[in-house]
Amino acid sequence: MRIIKTSTFFASLFERGFVDAPIPDNISLVEEIKRLKAAKNAVLLAHYYQEGAIQDLADFLGDSLFLAKAAAEVSSEIIVFAGVHFMAETAKIINPTKKVLLPDLNAGCSLADSCPPNAFAAFKAKHPGAIVVTYINCSAKIKALSDIVCTSSNAVRVIESIPKDQTIIFAPDKNLGRYLIKETGRHMILWEGSCIVHEAFSFDKIIALAQQHPNAKFIAHPESESQVLDIAQYIGSTSGLLDFVQVDNAAAYIVATEHGILHEMKKRAPQKTFIPAPVSDDTCACSECGFMKLNTLEKLYLCLKHELPEINIEPSLMAAAKTPIERMLALS
Ligand code: 13P
Ligand code: SF4
To answer: What is the CA(8)–ligand 2 centre distance, in A?
Structure first.
């Protein structure tokens, strides 16, 4: 029998007799997932930070912006989101009649957690008249307190769409916020949130690694700290990084973003070498997002089979969170 790491949610379902685990050894999870997807006409959306086997099964594979756009256009009844909670929640908000499933409801995000709604509402109240721009990596309640949402792919465009004399609050990622201030020259009041994965990269170890690989270019996601971004030869969202390594002429790259992106980079540019940027703590796999990696093939299979766990959001919250997302999509 396969041993599976069940979430608390599945454990409770199992205890209550709703889940027929363990999964027999003699089934192919990949084939079963394909079969269930087809039988239920379900669409699988996966982020580049998912494990490779899940990425390979996706109908739509991409970064946060691409997946939000894809979710808006799904016509099938079921969307399975292999990503984290705020992504599945966004899919539900922009396509509310669909059943949106997330293989593990505990797949959260340190950035979203770093911005509690009550504290953010109080912060916003201190700056009346400011336009609130929020990174999509936040909860529906924070989106509902926002004027417009952005992702790392379109953040510069979103900021530049706002009149120059307008004060801007940017939340929750202070690192992306600082990068945007530098790129756009705008005055922005930043919320002090961060991504545990992108803050884990070690400046000193990156410098040492770059010296060992003088021909490798160093590329980074803008959620990384400014010290790291200052030495990057290219900064971009996950899709931006992926596009760059295909058109650029270097043979090797040191990549400062979540490890999962290397799967697609190797597929799209098999002749090139990709080296994950080193992290400060040698004892953990910090460049892997523990939240993203909560989704596994086993949980994806169970999720499709039982059509659980499902994302449900209170209708008034959904309506309030939809407008700032739609404003972003209209600009993209
Ligand atoms: P993008 O998908 O916009 O590159 O963001 C990366 C990320 O951290 C998602 O959680
Ligand atoms: Fe959140 Fe960072 Fe994980 Fe993305 S990589 S889901 S921002 S914790």
So the answer is: 21
